[in-house]
Design goal:
This protein is an alpha+beta fold. The protein has one domain: SH3 type barrels, CATH 2.30.30.140. It has two helices and five strands; from the N terminus they run βββββαα. A hairpin with a 2-residue loop joins β2 and β3. It starts with a strand and ends with a helix.
Length: 78
């Protein structure tokens, strides 16, 4: 099973962006979502943004992620 996590674009430099995923910050490749800009939300899988999503969907997904017990959540972000 594949899991994509919503992330908010914080900065952009060509095909790379820094994103915020909850408390984590990570650099991703945005080549598959070339029109994203700072402030946009994307789904991230394996270090790549794979789809743009609206803020409402992103926040709803994070609410579900936050319901995952802590021990399982640690496995997601390893």
């Amino acid at each position: 099973m594949c899991l994509a996590i919503p992330a908010k674009i914080e900065s952009r430099d060509g095909d790379e962006s820094w994103v915020r995923m909850g408390d984590a910050r990570m650099r991703i490749n945005v080549v598959m979502t070339p029109d994203v800009k700072v402030g946009d939300w994307v789904l991230v899988h394996a270090g790549f943004s794979i789809q743009e999503v609206d803020e409402e969907e992103a926040k709803a997904t994070w609410e579900l992620i936050e319901q995952i017990p802590d021990d399982e959540e640690q496995e997601i972000f390893k």
